[in-house]
Amino acid sequence: MKKTYGFLAALLMGGIWQIPSSEAGALDPENGSGALKLYVTLEGPDALGIVDPESKRRLGTILVGGKPHDVICAPDGSTAYITNPETNDLSIVDTLTDKVKKTVEFGEEATPWHVEISPDGSQVFAALQDQSAVSIIDTTQNRVASKVSTASGPWAIAAPRDDIVYATLNGSVSKGTANKARSEDIAVFDPTEASPTAKYLTLAADTANGPHGIVSAPDGSTVYIAAQASHEVWKISVDDNRVERVAKIPDPNPNGTPLNPGFPTDLAISPDGNTLIAVNHDLDSITVINLRTQKIIETVSTGEGSEPWGAIVAPDGQTVYVSTNGIDSLAFFPMSELTDGTEGANKDTIAGLPTSDGLAWCKLAQ
Questions:
Q1: Residues sharing a CB contact under 8 Å with residue 226, sequence separation 6 or more, in sequence order
Q2: pLDDT at site 233
Q3: Which of 5, 91, 252, 339 has the fewest beta carbons under 10 Å from its own?
């Protein structure tokens, strides 16, 4: 996930969620909270799942495009945007009716991966992995306004401010160019320019860094990057684009764990900006990092074979949610137990969720 904190989400707490083949329903103010919805991309049924976080009640699913991977919500909560790699398009959902109101096509072999939205909500950015480009969608007309070419395939995007966008570049999975050494790890551009052009940053020269997930600090001052090939977390200061290594995730395998695709793959940040969660897909774990000291607090298992992809911290900062799609489930941990300095943390799991990576919440206007 790869996004500013305010648009990310938690999920259902408790019970098993059985997904009907086709079901959708808007949040009813008479029967639900009427203010907050939780969305999760469901790769298996090609759907977006809907949950009321207060009642912990499943509201339904929305059929979208093929194998939805990521979701983001507009700042006003009115619209959700979902990338669909298999059908090379973007589903735009009206969150009041929970219906797809438009589909934006990206063309053949686009492979839209992650999605982000500008803080003012005027632009949506989709990483087109196999077109080596970032598509800019004008949200007033819900159409592609322009496309920014990148040196290699973009994976994830962060927009900490309206005038700056960062995209992690890690090649193409289908073309076999992922996790290769390259001098352009991060693309940077100003989306407010008439013809945005990417400039590039390098994490560590002559190294296969494999940048994947990216997340903005809540105050927009910093973006953090998960480098899945070098097993590191990096940060970029937005004001001057200064690059700095934050931490290296220890590999428990003395011979080196084979990359599949690597670790960490994704990041989540606490609402106070003090704690970072690194998702270790190949290690079936998460690593908790204190951002004030830039020290690892601990690494906690998400379960054997869980293959975690995405993560998010709850709005109140009390719970960390991890999408463990290797076992079609969601794991969640108390933040207090992850940061108290003692070993381990209690984990609860919701089974029966064929998740991919995307977790997002929408707070509807009152």
A1: 211, 212, 213, 214, 233, 264, 265, 266, 267, 278, 279
A2: 98
A3: 252
Contacts within 8 Å (CB) and 24+ apart, 65-68: 65/89, 65/90, 65/91, 65/103, 67/43, 67/356, 68/41, 68/42, 68/43, 68/356, 68/358
pLDDT, tens digit, 9 for 90 and up, residues 218-235: 999 999 999 999 999 999
In this structure, the number of other CB atoms found within 10 A of the CB of residue 364 comes to 18
Judge contact between 73 and 361, C-beta under 8 A.
yes
Query: Could you give the CA distance from residue 120 to residue 47 in angstroms, rounded to a whole number?
Result: 27
Inter-residue contact 186 to 236 (CB < 8 Å):
yes
Which one is predicted more confidently, 167 or 361? 167
Look at residues 6, 27, 4, 43 and name the one whose alpha carbon lies nearest to residue 328: 43
> What sign does the CA torsion over 237, 241, 245, 247 have?
positive
Residue with tokens 């509807």: 364
Q: Per-residue pLDDT for 30 more than 50?
A: no
**What pLDDT is stored for residue 53 in this prediction?**
66
CATH fourth-level superfamily of 5-13+26-255+357-363 = YVTN repeat-like/Quinoprotein amine dehydrogenase (2.130.10.10)
**pLDDT at site 57:** 60
Of 308, 364, 354, the residue nearest 333 (C-alpha): 308
- What is the model's pTM? 0.90
The confidence score (pLDDT) of residue 356 equals: 82
In sequence order, what E strands does 33-77 have? 36-42, 47-52, 57-63, 70-73
What b-and-e string marks burial along 10-35, b requiring 16 or more CB atoms within 10 Å of the CB? bbbeeeebebeeebbebbeeeebbeb
Q: How far, rounded to the nearest angstrom, does the alpha carbon of residue 86 sit from its chain's CA centroid? A: 18
